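Risk register update: the risk of archive-format incompatibility is retired. Evidence:
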Amino acid sequence: MLTDSTASRPPPRRVLVVDDHTSLRQLWADMLRLHGYAADVAADGLSARDKIAQQSYDAIVCELHMPGLGGRALFDECLQHHPQAAARFVFISGGWYADTDELVAGTGRPCLIKSFSWKQLHDALLTIYNANDALERDTP
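Archived output:
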């Protein structure tokens, strides 16, 4: 008798990649898919905000410095309207700029500097997953 081994596997973790650079956004989404994640993309903070309101994500990989609604402003909106989503942010940045410390301060969220490795991203995602899985187990 044949069994369906996929029936016992949990669904893939859903990750939203938010970056205003098309090629980088697609590269990271493709890399995540290659490693078994379900990846979604948003080109800016406004479209990411809409996606977060409609869909639950296990992690949100978000560029800090974007035109319009930047990564920190998106995080702050999530804190107010979608606190579970805010706990799932991993910030990314093209460099450690003068305002990067200020933007990340007080969030408790990791920040990766481009060009980070797959291992760095994977480790940051695992940290987010482990913390949120523990919180869900401990919440009555």
